[in-house]
Amino acid sequence: MKSRQTRSFAITLLLSPLFIAASVHAQGYPNKPVRFVVPFVPGGPTDIQGRMLGEKLSQRIGQQVLIDNRGGAGGNIGMELTVKSPPDGYTIVIATVGTWAVNPHLYKLNFDVVKDFAPIIQISTSPGVLVVHPSLPAKSVKDLVALAKARPGQLNYGSSGVGGFGHISGELFALMTNTKMSHIPYKSSAPSLTDLIAGNIEVLFNNAISTVPHVKANRVRALATTGSQRLAVLSELPTIAEAGIAGYENSSWSAVAAPAGTPATIISRLHKEFVAILADPDIQKRHADVGAQIIGGTPEQFHAYLKAEVAKFGKLVKTAGIKAASGG
Fold this sequence. Notes:
The chain is of the alpha/beta class.
């Protein structure tokens, strides 16, 4: 009995400096720049949102927040980089539904999105916009369906990559309309939007954040939105469901996390700062202007939501027969 107590006491003595060091480290946080990983190339919606939030976070914590764009593999490169970073609060990541909830069903990942990240906060949710190049003879969803049926496989639609929001939206559309279009994956939604504007692809299911300005400038033609409700910023546009595809709905969301093992005190501090940032009138207006709805909530709420989304998209990927081998 004494031997067991002695061992226990010895272990406590050995570990206590580590706990004390972790506590002191957390109390002094932050005392150097914070790396904010964006697992996509510059110019896309996640990059835009990350820079917007990073600027505000920097102002609040009094340290630089450095945006680190790590595009490729549908966001997996940036996610793995984050997981392998020290869990000290100096590396955080912002990613979207495709990276968080779809990729686990498409790729053999070296990490587990549920177990290997410490959730901080869900940022926002946003329906997408179905847009086409102005030269395409389709001015409504019904026109697009008719054209796709008349020209099976000939219409090209882009996305941020296999399993990304645009890809999932396109697959849902094809399943529900019994049509076939050719998927063209990009490293981010930014180059896919550029190619649509240039006329190199004809169709795009894209995030509202980066698409709305081009709709308003008449560079692309919007046919409908992908959510369950109309976008206030494009109130004249019907949802795809309203346009005749009953039951269609798909929206994107984003969330911030740190590597698993990051001290709870640091997660709490970061969560507190992001809550304040999301309540900032400027941030609220900039999200509302592009049809995004701020979510917020606790780390625990995001963790529960993430697990539900991973399960939901697992079923969809299987039903649609989506394979990572076709691009990404």
